[in-house]
Amino acid sequence: MASTRFIVSLALLLSFSAPALPVLAGGAITNATLPAGKPGNVRLFVNRVGSGKAMDVSNDTDVPVEVVLRLTRMVNVAGVGKGVVRKTVPARTRVRIATLRKRQPGYPLMFQQSFSYSLIYSPEPGKKGTVGGHAYALPWKGGPFRISQGAGGDYSHNSPKGRYAVDVAMPVGTPIVAARAGTVLKVRNGQGGRLPDPAGNYVRILHDDGTHSAYLHLKRGSVQVKAGQQVKAGTLLGQSGNTGRSTGPHLHFVVQKNIGDSLVSVPFRFTQPVESLPNFARREP
Hints:
Layout lengths: L31 E2 L8 E8 L2 E8 L5 E11 L1 E2 L5 E6 L3 E10 L7 E10 L15 E2 L9 E4 L16 E4 L5 E3 L4 E7 L12 E6 L5 E7 L11 E2 L4 E4 L10 E10 L2 E4 L3 E2 L15
Parallel strand pairs: 9-20
Antiparallel strand pairs: 1-7, 2-3, 3-7, 4-6, 4-8, 5-7, 10-11, 11-18, 12-17, 13-14, 13-16, 14-15, 15-18, 18-19
């Protein structure tokens, strides 16, 4: 649930030890299907391939993601055009998104990179790669704001309860509104810092299909609704804050459903696209 922006810069003179993808006779990379049923995240792997570098994305979430790789300050680099690669990576797959070659043998490859990813929050249910189900209105007023940690984020979105949550970076005091009609189940309004609840101040809403939406890290004293109250989409709930386990001002929004005695995060979609900030590109398997 952290609002963070990670950019990793590498002068790629080192080799990395991530396992390679299968290579066909023509040199193309297949989509490797990953095991289902484990907590998901999205990672960029950089491997040595001959004298160049191969860049693979592993998406072991249950939904497709759009990834963006940007390379700058390129020296002796061929194979990526102007340095921007944007691709959709299907759920539970690992895909090669770029192969870097040396323009001149005998000289090193050097560049800086940033990597970001996001679920495809398209409002079009029939579009390929779209997350299905109810379309949620944006749960804030103002902006535009951007997603600072997406599904499977390494900081905190890596458990069944929160793996499909999104953190949206925004100033303290931004109006937070209901993204869908329902009944307020529970609120917290009096927490001033990190303790006692990692969620900080929050509002939880029950919807008519049994799912819950939760709005976390709200500003102390800002919550405008109470348990049992009926709300419509757009009803003011409170203001964004920086309470609980938060490393910066943001809204943590998640949709969940009951599985047995536990709440489990489920994929959802917004009614309009939301852009993402870069995420740290981890390389370990």
